[in-house]
Amino acid sequence: MSNTLVYVHDPMCSWCWGFKATMDSLELSLPEDIAVQRILGGLAPDSDEPMPVSMQNMLQQTWQQIASVVPGTQFNMDFWTKNQPRRSTWPSCRAVIAAKAQNSDFEIPMIRAIKEAYYLNAKNPSDVDVLTALAEEVGCDADLFRQSINSEATHNELQKEIQFARQLGVQGFPSLVFINTQNQAYGIRVDYNNADTILEQIEKTNLA
Fold it and tell me: ∠ at Cα 103 (171, 166), nearest 5°?
C-alpha cells in the first residue's frame, strides 16, 4: 500500500469550490510517493422538492462568505433566479462516477465541468439533462452516460464511497485524510488559502 491523501468532496459543495485553487496547488507540490484519491462524500440525497427559501438565502450568504475569505473565488448569483434550486447533490456525484466508468481520465474534467456550470454559468447540476450535456463536453458517450448515471452499479459505488468517508470520520467537505503505508489515517486541517501549511502537516504525519 502506498501513502495516500484522501480528498473527500462533493461537486456541488461550495466550500470545495473555494478550495479548488489551493487543492490544485497542493497536488502539484505533493511528493511523488503520495497518491491522491478522490472520494465523493454525497452532501445531499436525491430530491425533487424545491429548496426552501430559507435554505436558498443561507446558501447565498455562504457563497458571499466564501468569496470574501477565499480571494479569487467567483460565484454567479444568477443561479438563484434562473433555476429552481433543489437540495440534491447525489446526481452530480453519480455523474462523476459514471464519467469515470467510461474513462478514468474523465474524472477530474467532469468534476471541474460540474463546478463551473454551477458556480460560474448558473446551471443546475441537480438535473440529469445538464449533467449529460457536461459529460458529453468532457468526452463521454452521452447515451451510455445517461444509462449509467442511475444504474444500480453507480448507486452502489456512491454509497460505498460515502461509507468510506464515514469510516474515516469525515463530517464535512472538503476534508483531507492522510493514510500511510501502515494504513494509519490522520486528519489534515484544510487551509483554504495556503497549500504549504497543508503540505507541512502531511510531511510531519508522514515522518511520525
Answer: 15
